[in-house]
Amino acid sequence: MVVESDMSNRSVGLGGLPDRDGHVTLDACIQDHDCRAGSVAFLEHFEHPVSIARAVMERTPHVMLVGEGAAQWALANGFSERTVRIPEVTERWKEWLRTSEYRPGVNNENAPAGKGDATDHDTIGMLAMDAQGRMAGSCTTSGLAFKIHGRVGDSPIIGAGLFVDGDVGAACATGTGELVMRTAGSHSVVELMRQGMEPLEACREAVDRVLRKHPGLTGQQVGFLALRRDGAFGAHSIYNGFNYAITTADRHELQDAAFVRTWQ
Ligand code: ASP
Questions:
Q1: Is the pLDDT of residue 203 over 60?
Q2: Ligand 1 closest atom vs CA 180
Q3: Is 110 in the pocket of ligand 1 (CB under 6 A)?
Q4: How far is CA 135 from CA 30, 54, 126, 131, 167, in A?
Q5: What is the pLDDT of residues 92-120, one digit of tens each?
């Protein structure tokens, strides 16, 4: 929620970069220890899509609401719309419109100078465990910048951008959502841990599946983060530059994920 409210963040919340038609459309989901889940996608004008996803989980018999229907339901259930205008975002969209060239790229903010491109992405994915060992996870994003209007990524898709099964562990993903959805990424990571893999190995195998299924893939990032029910965790990405924050009672630090490739 803090990041969703941060209007200087260009890949999460209402401060995110728009789709190719100039709409900022938000995707988010949440899942708990017992596989209960809620999700919203293609949602405009709400500051906290993750809170609406939680409300969908807690107050409806459904898992996923999208677009206009999600907005109507949110309004009827105590959420208010918010409109933000950010001149820098409008400028970047207009600049992009000059060429209208869509190229998903690796996470810009971590790219060495000159290596980033105009398609920022960097979802917030969170995996949590409470003092009783109960787990939960969530994802929130404005998705890929300059995407086709109506495009939904992996982040609100249970099993792709996030999967939690308290019997085993939890995983979440960032990067080009299409690559993650095609391989049911986060679900794969949890199932690999169920079969005995360490969190890091499971993330590595999910990354390798993405690479095996997309021969010749280059310049696109995917990163997985996993937390096992015993508290062990790990992360792996295609390219360097994917890092994650760990917070426990006595630790609060950023760590770099393992990676397959470095920038050329
Ligand atoms: N996975 C997100 C999407 O495809 C983007 C991201 O991770 O930044 O919508």
A1: yes
A2: 1
A3: no
A4: 11, 15, 11, 10, 9
A5: 999 999 998 877 665 444 444 444 443 45
d(CA 245, CA 236): 14
Is the minimum distance from the CB of 175 to ligand 1 under 6 angstroms? Answer: yes
Q: Is the CB of 153 under 6 A from ligand 1?
A: yes
* Residue 198: CATH number of its domain: 3.60.20.30
What are the tens digits of pLDDT across the range 150-186? 999 999 999 999 999 999 999 999 999 999 999 999 9
Residue tagged 């401060």 (tokens): 15
| 221 located within any domain | yes
On whether residue 200 sits in a domain, the answer given is yes
Domain count, the chain: 1
Helix 185-194 with 199-213: angle, nearest 10 deg: 140
Distance from residue 41's CA to the centre of ligand 1 (Å): 12
Is 123 annotated in the active site?
yes
Which amino acid, 170?
A
**22-67 per-position pLDDT tens digit:** 999 999 999 999 999 999 999 999 999 999 999 999 999 999 999 9
Does a structural domain hold residue 210?
yes
Q: Please report whether residue 252 resides in a domain.
A: yes
Output the pLDDT for position 121: 58
Q: Does the C-beta of 143 come closer than 6 Å to ligand 1? A: yes
Among 123, 141, 174, 183, the active-site one is 123
Given ligand 1 and candidates 26, 39, 154, 225, which is best to mutate, with the most ligand atoms within 8 Å of its CB? 154
Q: Which atom of ligand 1 is nearest to the CA of 11?
A: 8
Domain that holds residue 205: 145-261
